What does this fold into?
Amino acid sequence: MPSKILVCLDDLEHSKKLATYVGKAMNPNAGMQLTLFHCIRSSDLDIGAEEIELSSEDKINIDKILDDHFKAKGMKEEDIFSCQDVFTSAREILKENGFSGSSIKEKIVVRDLDVAACILREAYNHQYGSIVIAKRRQVKLPITKLGAVAENVITNAIGKTIILVSIAM
It folds into this structure.
C-alpha cells in the first residue's frame, strides 16, 4: 500500500465512520502518512476567495462562516457541525487505533472547484498514492449510482489506488 494516503472527510458522522474504517483496516506501523482532507466550495459560502488553505487558527473563522451558512439553510442547531469537530474526531479515532499524531496531518481547502476536482487536484499535486473516500448512498447496483463526488474521483483518479468505503446509513 502506498505510504501517502489522502483521507477525504465530509460531515461529522460520516467522517467518524470513515476514520473508524481507516483505523481498523490499515496498519499503523506501516509507515503511512495520512492526511485528513476536507474541501469546501467557496461559492457555496459567498466568501469570494478563489482558494484558501486554512491553518489551525483559520479553522475557527471558517467554522463561524459554516455555522452562519447552515443556519441560513434552515439546519437545526444539533445537526450543524464544525470543521474542528470533524478533524478532532477523526484524529482521535485514528490515534485510538494505533496511529501516532505525527503520522496524521490535517488540511482544509476552501476553493471554487467542485469537491471531486479539489480532491483530485490535491492527490496529484501532492503525490498521494491512495485516496480514501466514502460512498454515502444506499444503492446496490449499478456502480454509477455512487454519488457525484465518489463517482467523479473514481472515474478520474488515474494511477491512484482508490479505497471506497460504504458508510450508507
User: Anything to note?
Assistant: DSSP finds six helices and six strands in the chain. The longest strand covers residues 33-41. The mean pLDDT is 81. The beta strands are 4-8, 33-41, 51-54, 104-111, 130-135, 161-166.
